[in-house]
Automatic annotation (TrEMBL):
Superkingdom of source: Bacteria
Pfam families, per database record: Amidohydro_1
Ranges in a coiled coil: none
UniProt-listed CDD domains: Met_dep_hydrolase_A (cd01299)
Domain Amidohydrolase-related residues, every copy: 84-423
Phylogenetic placement of the source organism: Bacteria, Bacillati, Actinomycetota, Actinomycetes, Propionibacteriales
Name of the protein this chain belongs to: Imidazolonepropionase
MF-aspect GO terms: hydrolase activity, acting on carbon-nitrogen (but not peptide) bonds
Transmembrane segments: none
Length: 426
């Protein structure tokens, strides 16, 4: 299989907030959804030393009782006709988003402790890897990596970069205090230095803001942000590190502006058109939809204090989100999955799968949230039930081919396996 370059491996190893556990496990009597878009098959999965060594109808464990020893050693889990799929990957997860309205003025210790709870909850839902495009730091990642709290693999960018008055600049017009949720930085030399500083701190990738957003008070969603030279400078720094650039971008104009100048990962992209989708495909750019955020905000954000201007912006992008996925898929764009949930809305994470499945169906949505996201984060050994891949699994009591709603209902029983070790469930 294709493995990461040495530079990519260094970055991912620094970010990988999942303790290395050499565990053996055999899962039998399962409906296997492999994450690659293939038709489900009935059979089993065998994991040895944290990696998958056998998949298919011939996998057996001798005895079918949980806790018995399989042929590879370790316990045997009988799925009893339930589905097994790769551990899910959320490519837009905000660990540090303590409140919907922002984290300004909140002590970092509190933010970190709150973030650990958010990551543990994500792992419990079945997300064994997350990419945080607007937070994280080496100490927080280390705590998860050393098992101080139950965490998925955690790939972080640190603070995203925003131009003055851009989506990451939360200052109201009368304020001169710059908040810490993004770094406001302008000019080619300045953004280049900021990118280098992110990598010094172990960033997986660099995030920039190239359009307006829903939460920010003063920037129209449609207006492109950062100059071409500024974007190319950040892309140059990331490319030389074996990494890539993530862009918060909604409008067709801002997406084109980002992609033409080398951005690889487009977050949101709700307002793209067919021509822009084709351009993304031509440049091998990924689209990371975040449907759960808009749906949740439309129902709950007013009660949580989101200002009216943000509610108006949210309505603008809400209905367009699913259409953007259709356009991207028709053009051949690789479509991932993200949640982008902040504050108390985090419990809507699985709902994003339901919304995406309304467009793509179950099997393709699972692929978006597993193997496609794995390719996006430069980890082709994740997100697949295939030999030599990491043994991250989500085992559902239900057969998802008959009952897909079980996947996005967090009340339905599930077992989460990380590197062959059961971390939640039976």
């Amino acid at each position: 299989m294709i493995m990461s370059t040495s530079a990519e491996s260094t970055i991912n190893a620094y970010n990988d907030s999942c303790p290395v556990v050499d565990s053996d496990l055999t899962v039998i009597n399962a409906v296997i959804i492999d994450g690659l878009g293939n038709e489900p098959i009935r059979g089993g999965v065998r994991i040895r030393d944290g990696r998958i060594v056998e998949v298919g109808p011939d996998v057996s464990g001798g005895s079918t009782s949980t806790g018995s020893s399989g042929a590879a050693g370790g316990p045997v889990l009988d799925a009893a006709g339930g589905s097994v799929l790769p551990g899910l990957i959320d490519a837009h997860c905000h660990a540090f988003a303590t409140y919907l309205t922002g984290s300004a003025g909140i002590p970092l210790t509190y933010v970190g402790i709150h973030g650990s709870r958010r990551l543990t909850a994500a792992l419990r839902r079945g997300f064994t890897t997350v990419r945080d495009p607007a937070g994280g730091d080496p100490a927080f990642a280390r705590a998860g990596r050393e098992g101080l709290f139950a965490a998925p693999r955690y790939l972080y960018t640190g603070e995203p970069l925003s131009q003055t008055g851009g989506h990451g600049d939360p200052r109201p017009p009368e304020s001169s205090a710059c908040l810490h949720t993004s770094e406001v930085v302008d000019g080619v030399d300045a953004v280049r230095t900021a990118a280098r500083e992110r990598f010094r701190q172990g960033a997986h990738a660099i995030k920039i803001m190239t359009s307006g957003g829903v939460i920010s008070p003063s920037d129209p969603i449609a207006v492109p942000q950062y100059s071409a030279d500024e974007i190319r400078a950040v892309v140059d720094e990331a490319t030389r590190r074996g990494s890539y650039v993530i862009a918060h971008s909604y409008s067709a104009a801002s997406v084109r502006h980002s992609v033409i100048n080398g951005v690889r990962s487009i977050e949101h992209g709700n307002l793209i058109d067919a021509t822009t989708a084709e351009l993304m495909a031509d440049h091998d750019a990924f689209l990371v939809p975040t449907l759960a955020a808009y749906d949740a905000m439309s129902r709950r954000a007013a009660a949580l204090g989101l200002p009216e201007v943000s509610m108006i912006k949210n309505a603008e992008v809400l209905d367009a989100g699913q259409q953007a996925i259709e356009l991207a898929r028709a053009a051949g764009v690789q479509v991932g999955f993200g949640s982008d949930l902040m504050g108390d809305l985090e419990d809507e994470q699985l709902n994003g799968l339901r919304l995406q499945a309304e467009v793509l169906g179950l099997i393709d949505t699972v692929r978006c949230a597993t193997s496609t996201n794995a390719d996006l984060i430069q980890r082709p050994d994740l997100g697949r039930i295939a030999v030599d891949c990491v043994g991250d699994l989500l085992i559902m009591e239900a057969d998802l081919t008959d009952d897909p709603d079980a996947l996005w209902d967090d009340r339905r029983p599930r077992t989460v396996v990380r590197s062959g070790q059961v971390v939640f469930g039976s």
